[in-house]
């Protein structure tokens, strides 16, 4: 029976992520999520005390999957650190260039929930900090293996992540990939030897 609950909880999270990624957090009601998931309202409250707690769990689940994917990519030791970072940024460009199908919950929900929920804001802050930490470690590895020029690893990781978040938001606003392509060009120049 425990497995069933874990699957139902995950199913509610995945269904909600698809809907919220398109519409935002505040404009999606629990009824819409549960109806799409085919789950009764009572089941929702078995797993989550409130919509806010659900939003926090949604973000935690998103970051867990995102960080696992990032760890797998960054573990590809057949590539230099610079090549692994190039793969990361190319994936970002490929996913975010299709604005109609928003996949990055940080871009989609960051500004929206920061003022609505301290718990969700903190989850976003912690998740993005973990991404920057991983980027900084890989930049430091690239400096050590000679594939990346001498840079302040943490500052560079933070700046690049901020650049790409901003470019993603501008891409969404302009409905084109120009800002993302500019971010890619700058990133390549910065990280090239």
Topology, please?
Layout: H1 2-23, H2 30-37, H3 41-47, H4 51-74, H5 81-96, H6 105-114, H7 118-145, H8 153-174, H9 178-191
What are the defining features of this structure?
elongated; 9 helices; 193 residues; mainly alpha; disordered N terminus
Overall description:
The protein is mostly helical and 193 residues long. α6 crosses α7. The longest helix is centred in the C-terminal third of the chain and has 28 residues. The radius of gyration is 18 Å and the shape is elongated. The chain starts with a helix and ends with a helix.
Helix/strand-derived class?
mainly alpha
Helix and strand succession? HHHHHHHHH
Tell me roughly what share of residues is in helical segments: over 70%
- Using DSSP, what is the number of strands? 0
Shape: elongated
